[in-house]
Design goal:
The chain is of the alpha/beta class and about 180 residues long. The protein is built from six helices and seven strands. Helices cover about 35% and strands about 25% of the residues. It is globular, with a radius of gyration of 16 Å. It binds 5-O-phosphono-beta-D-ribofuranosylamine.
Length: about 180
């Protein structure tokens, strides 16, 4: 069975959705890694019986040192793919040159790269909003696009907009993982 690792930083709702839809079905989630010891997703993963590792970035002096440790853990587990699901860290080439990874971003890339994409997309005059799964490269939110899903945000309030963003994420992220792993 193909193996993946999921990295996350906070709520972990995408991680939870991926575990529920794919774990022990089309693939195995061997471990999930949080860089934030207070991430709410840690409990979600534990409740689903998936091994959880906390790698606190604050314990490392340099960004690069954190990335190197992360790469060592991932390589030791010999996974087929690393999945960034709400992982709020900028990664250095130490990571991006060595690890095959994909990320989910809450906009229709190349629009609204970087932080606060949801708010910027919501406040923009562009009616088409959506989410993108893409390959992870050193330049933030710039790797090859694997899958996108869009919706028309006209007339929506922010809460409804965010519900639509999450619904799109929960729909396409598992599909994109299966696609990239040829499952
Ligand atoms: C998602 O909206 C994702 O697109 C963005 O961060 C959010 C993470 O949410 N990168 P969750 O932790 O999966 O609930």
């Amino acid at each position: 069975m193909k193996k993946i690792i999921i990295l996350f930083s906070g709520e972990g709702s995408n991680m939870e959705n991926i575990i529920k839809k794919l774990h022990n079905k089309s693939l195995e989630v061997v471990v999930v890694i949080a860089n934030n010891p207070k991430a709410k997703g840690i409990l979600k993963a534990k409740n689903l019986g998936v091994k959880t590792v906390i790698l606190d970035h604050k314990k490392f002096d340099k960004r690069e040192d954190f990335d190197k440790e992360l790469v060592e853990i991932i390589q030791s587990l010999k996974v087929d793919l690393t999945v960034l699901a709400g992982f709020m860290r900028i990664l250095t080439p130490s990571f991006t040159d060595n690890i095959k990874a994909i990320n989910i971003h809450p906009s229709l890339l190349p629009n609204f790269k970087g932080a606060n994409a949801q708010k910027r997309s919501f406040e923009s005059g562009i009616n088409q909003a959506g989410v993108t799964v893409h390959e992870v490269v050193t330049e933030v939110d710039s790797g090859e696009i694997i899958m996108q899903k869009s919706f028309d945000k006209s007339g929506m309030d922010f809460d409804t907009f965010m519900q639509n963003i999450h619904a799109c994420e929960y729909d396409i992220f598992p599909k994109a993982i299966n696609k990239i792993l040829n499952l």
